[in-house]
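Exercise: predict the fold of this chain.
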Amino acid sequence: MNLEYMELAFKEAEKAFKCGEVPVGAVIVKNGKIIAKTHNKKEKTHCAVNHAEILAIKLASRKLRNWRLEDCDIYITLEPCPMCASAIKQARIKNVYSAISNKDENNNFLIKKIFETDKVNSAVNFINELSVKKSETLLQKFFVSRRKK
């Protein structure tokens, strides 16, 4: 784990914030090299699946010319939703480093279940709560600004 990558994910989250997107950023790393970095783009693209994690997986897969992102790690500024957790597992990403957990207990439960070993895929190592205050502050700032509009 390298928290410098988490800082890059936060830079991506800031870009999302400035574009009116929920401020979530993601960075995928393999062997100490950044393979992909991006942020939420649901509003910009008018597409519900364009979460930071999904977009990062697409970029990394394109760069590596392989959908299997084995030995890759992903750094994200917010615990993934079930859709993104499933994509992470399907992509064979080894480690997930998250700045903060989602406040929804159902989300937390589902993520843990998705990341467990199943008959097809091995478990995803999930490390959470790495930068709680920073992520919490950014998310609160975003939602306060949205309520004012």
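Check your answer against the key: The first strand starts at residue 25 and ends at 30.
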